[in-house]
Amino acid sequence: MSSTATKPVIVIVPGAWHVPAHYAHLALKLNSAGYTVDCLEISSTNDEKDLPEDTWNEDISIIRNAITSHTEAGRDVAVVMHSFGGMTGSEAACGLGKKESETSGSVVKLIYMTSFMVQEGQTRADFPTSDDWPIIARLDDEKNPKALVPLEPLHFFYHDVPEQMTRRAIDNLGGCPLSHVAHAPSKVAWREIPTAYIICEDDRALTKNGQEQLIDAVKAQGIEVEVARLKASHSPFLSMPAETAKTIRGFLEKA
User: Fold this and answer.
1) Domain definitions of the chain by residue range
2) Does the pLDDT of residue 3 top 80, yes or no?
3) Rounded to a whole number, what is the distance in angstroms from the first to the last CA of the chain?
4) What is the pLDDT of residues 54-78, one digit of tens each?
5) Where does the record place the AB hydrolase-1 domain (predicted)?
6) DSSP states of the chain as a string?
7) Given a cut of 80, is residue 5 above it in pLDDT?
8) Separation of alpha carbons 80 and 86, rounded Å
9) Are strands 225-230 and 195-200 parallel, antiparallel or unpaired?
């Protein structure tokens, strides 16, 4: 995309348990560079006792409707997906690229930020527990046995984030339905839309090796994936928002 072109709207799809407040620092950095940012709140982050048992399709609808609200108004969109957001975001963006879109705006870039860039039919449960794929959650026996809560979020999500910011981030964590780990995208937009990946090399939740395995599997399908690396945890939007924004801009502002 030329630097003189109109900047795309950046739609941020949050990871499991995460809400817009987690991405506020990143959004501000992108705003200051002239980007409009639409950070989504999805159904599965509801942490009340009535957390729906299955919000997979509802989350996909929320993401897709957010994207099309911009494309139907003639604006291009870049979709930035964090962590589990890559599962639902990959399906939600299907058919909305330049070649497929029926509107004047389209999705011009997918950016996976230490995120699940999976194949059709592949679930989170398909990755066997190992050092590369650690267990990071347990059943929420206290509030909702059909939901998952993160294990040691300081260790897995925020080990390089300033202490006060970490406390706020942990306080803001929402819910995640157990059913999510058994769902898989039926189609994936990275087959249609230019794709990039931000590897976070110090991630303890979705490890560097795990991220590289996901990228290699997509490249094996003949798909080009632009890659950038940050020396960051699972939450680069909190530990290094300026560098993360610069990386996203780098993907979007290339000629």
Assistant:
1) 9-252
2) no
3) 5
4) 789 999 999 999 999 999 999 999 9
5) 10-246
6) --TTSPPPEEEEE--TT--GGGGHHHHHHHHHTT--EEE---GGG--STT--S--HHHHHHHHHHHHHHHHTTT--EEEEEEETHHHHHHHHTTT-BTTT-SSSS-EEEEEEEEE----TT--GGGS--SSSS---EEEETTTEEEEEEES-HHHHT-TTS-HHHHHHHHHH----BGGGGG---SS-GGGTS-EEEEEETT-TTTTHHHHHHHHHHHHTTT--EEEEEES--S-HHHH-HHHHHHHHHHHHS--
7) no
8) 8
9) parallel
Annotate 172-189 with DSSP letters as a single string: H----BGGGGG---SS-G
Class of the CATH domain delimited by 9-252: alpha beta
Instruction: Give the pTM.
Output: 0.95
**Both structure tokens of 222:** 């003949």
